[in-house]
What does this fold into?
Amino acid sequence: MAPADELKPWKSLGRFELLDASPWLRVWREDFRLPSGTELAGFYKLELPDYVIVVPLHDEGVVVLRAYKPGPDRIGIQLPGGYIEPGEDPLTAAKRELLEESGYSSEDWSSLGRFTNDGNRGSGTGHFFLARDVRKVADPVDDEMEESIVQTMPMGELVDAMRAGDVHVLSIVAAIGLAAIPR
Amino acid sequence: MAPADELKPWKSLGRFELLDASPWLRVWREDFRLPSGTELAGFYKLELPDYVIVVPLHDEGVVVLRAYKPGPDRIGIQLPGGYIEPGEDPLTAAKRELLEESGYSSEDWSSLGRFTNDGNRGSGTGHFFLARDVRKVADPVDDEMEESIVQTMPMGELVDAMRAGDVHVLSIVAAIGLAAIPR
It folds into this structure.
């Protein structure tokens, strides 16, 4: 256990690309010098696109999606979100994804933070947003890769559903926590 | 938007391994038939080890770690946790990681759920645990790859620190949410 003022980052000594599946995925082996002085060879790092997740709120609760996701290979509760497009800023992506996936829009946005997907590998950064007073302004855009049901759930019901195992994806759990913990 | 009873999973038509860096990482291209009937070729899936995260509670608050993590490449607040070893069950891994990383032990464990790391790619499953009435029984195990400071923070301070940007990793945000949302 290091004293507080002795915590230091690892120092990169160079990296080697193992797989380039841009824009979806790049895999690297990276060599580091640890704070102890030891050299660590071939630590795996992953680059994936950054993404947004939106918690859309109105008087009746949270606008959620019920959808199949290939990561867990299950149907469960999701929130609007998706990859940030090249050159797009996170808030613009959040507004676009909310509208495309749910048909809702908001003029009251705030950030819930940004977090790295994997503490060891990297794997992209999620940008989390709260959208208050959302209004339905359109139909969701049809996308055969993202078929979904748009529903409204009171926050308490959403938390109960999460605890009952109806939320399967880590970013959705994080978004619910960020929005549901009392201030 | 599909009617509720029409949501269906994707059907796998086969997969091709792109990279085998076992036990840390495997990358696949997988072909699917979407519910619409369209064939989707070469969707990337990632296999990473499953892991545990522990929220250790005692009278004075949550036992947290301050540590450098290579994913975000930053020093911040972490919780005890790590990869599940081959053949190890998640609760055993949680008890081992809590003891190794913090020196604390508990006889009151409950599950906070299990969640897939990436909704699209998979990337392993995190198993989340609450450990109540933890007691310090040992010193943390020295590990030059995981130098850390063990601290206790009241849950409210931990939530404030998360909101202030001192938590950088998604699994830690999820764990804090799962433990901090009132029942």
Observations:
- The longest strand of chain A covers residues 11-21.
